[in-house]
Specification:
This protein is mainly β. The strands form two sheets. Strands 1, 4, 5, 6, 7, 8, 10, 11, 12 and 13 form a ten-stranded mixed beta sheet that branches. Strand 4 and strand 5 form a beta hairpin.
Length: 225
């Protein structure tokens, strides 16, 4: 795997060890809300799939594709604000969006790591403790999506879906972790524009609540350069 892919994986590992408007904000985003830390069970999942389980986020009808759509293009689409989080090789550009799902507030983070293109998307309820603010109001940095850009779907997956629905859409998971996360993980070799072989890794992860409904989810895509 190339340097870009290795750095992306190193960032994930570092996050695991820690138990993790078109304006551009040059200052570091150091205070909440921030994207969630990745679960420690992420790297336990084996790559059992040959095709990506979810390599795009759908905002109503428009689609933001991982490693294709730039964060700037996503900002133009949503009127969102790009922010910088982290330092050095761990710095990344992020953008927060807010919406609703069945009347409940939802937050989505679009993340560009090691590239100008969106490489990760996180989705969770906006009224979870330490995520939104009292009353479920979206944080100020999270641009409220227009109705035509709802609902938010990671591939075909959205919050509130039952475990049965998710499995019907993407099949049996690659790994079910003890911490409640379900992972779908694909690995495939592709040919780039220079006809060189590159490795692509794609994760879909969903955590279900006690009632068996999706309460958190994320997708991530890593390629070697």
């Amino acid at each position: 795997m190339g340097l870009s892919g290795l750095l992306s994986l190193q960032r994930s590992v570092a996050g695991l060890a820690a138990a993790l408007g078109l304006g551009y904000a040059g200052e570091l985003l150091a205070e909440p809300p921030l994207p969630m830390a990745y679960p420690g069970s992420l790297l336990e999942a084996p790559a059992t799939l040959e095709e990506p389980p979810a390599d795009f986020v759908r905002l109503g009808k428009p689609v933001v594709r991982l490693d294709v759509t730039t964060l700037e293009e996503a900002a133009v689409l949503t009127n969102g604000t790009r922010l910088r989080e982290g330092r050095g090789v761990f710095a990344r550009d992020i953008m927060c969006l807010s919406g609703t799902e069945d009347g409940r507030p939802v937050l989505a983070w679009l993340i560009a790591s090691d590239t100008v293109r969106v490489s990760e998307v996180q989705l969770f309820w906006g009224d979870e403790p330490d995520e939104g603010v009292p009353g479920g109001e979206a944080p100020r940095v999270c641009r409220r999506l227009a109705p035509e850009h709802l609902p938010i779907r990671l591939g075909k997956i959205g919050l509130g879906m039952t475990k049965k629905d998710v499995w019907e859409f993407v099949g049996a998971p690659s790994h079910v972790a003890e911490d409640g996360w379900h992972y779908w993980f694909s690995q495939r070799f592709l040919r780039n524009a220079r006809n060189l072989q590159e490795l692509e890794l794609n994760w879909l992860a969903v955590r279900f609540d006690d009632e068996g409904r999706a309460e958190r989810a994320f997708i991530s895509l890593v390629k070697n350069p």
